[in-house]
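Course assignment 3, question 2. Fill in each field.
Student: A.L.
Task: Predict the tertiary structure for the chain below.
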Amino acid sequence: MNVVLTVILAVQMLAALGMIGLILVQHGKGADMGAAFGSGSSGSLFGASGSANFLSRTTGILAALFFACTLMLAYFGNAQPRTGSSVLEGAAVTAPVPGAAASAASGAAQIPGTSAPATSSAAVPAPPAPAASGAGQIPTK
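Answer field:
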């Protein structure tokens, strides 16, 4: 299965690079008008109007191949068996161990470059409550 995905991805990347090259080689619609009045090089490798048909068809074929490879990659990517219904369910959940040392429970111990306080986590005072709420916080002139 891994080899199939690698081959499909390689074909998709080659089709994308081929489309980029062919689109950059093609002339716009305005370039045909200039060639009709004599300016530009109408005698090209594929003839006067042969390059438009050849390049357009090749670009269309490569676009269809790119689209098919994209659909196959999406199908094979979703066909793999899952352990849960969500990506987040498979994430590792770490919870603090009850009765752990005070430095592990302390918020300062989790910051690199700081030392943990010598007090236990039960002796850490709670932060003070806000002095005023609502209209009392609006500054007056």
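Instructor remarks: Residues 95 and 105 are 11 Å apart (CA to CA). The mean pLDDT is 73.
Grade: pending
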